[in-house]
């Protein structure tokens, strides 16, 4: 109940009959008081937790071949996550928003990212970075003709 995810969807996920979206994973993790990194097993351990490239989960796939990988994250309700995004021309990802005071750091490795936050558009070019409050609707869009690659850190505090 606390997650806002239906019992039917939880049963489908538990039975490996459905793959949860990033938004659903965030809701489920928050209700459990853990991070998404805990749920997909890329969370840090006491000293150092090395994550092999084959163990890094792809949590989003774009219609044209793009992907979002959760590279690493901390354990517990205060989430700190490192993401790698690749978006092909025309791909986009939309989020309804994270809990209050969530902040994202973005760095564009290649291409141009159009970041929309609460209806306002911001252009982040290759080699540039941004800090964004993402506790409101936001989207990442590649509206160019070139591949976009960006690195993102999410800092989501527990409620």
From TrEMBL:
This is Cupin domain-containing protein. Residues 1-39 form the HTH cro/C1-type domain. Keywords: DNA-binding, Transcription, Transcription regulation. Pfam families: Cupin_2. InterPro entries: Cro/C1-type_HTH, Cupin_2, Lambda_DNA-bd_dom_sf, RmlC-like_jellyroll, RmlC_Cupin_sf, TransReg_Diox_bact_type. The keyword DNA-binding applies. PROSITE patterns: HTH_CROC1. The keyword Transcription regulation applies. One of its GO terms (cellular component) is cytosol. SUPFAM superfamilies: lambda repressor-like DNA-binding domains (SSF47413), RmlC-like cupins (SSF51182). One of its GO terms (molecular function) is DNA binding.
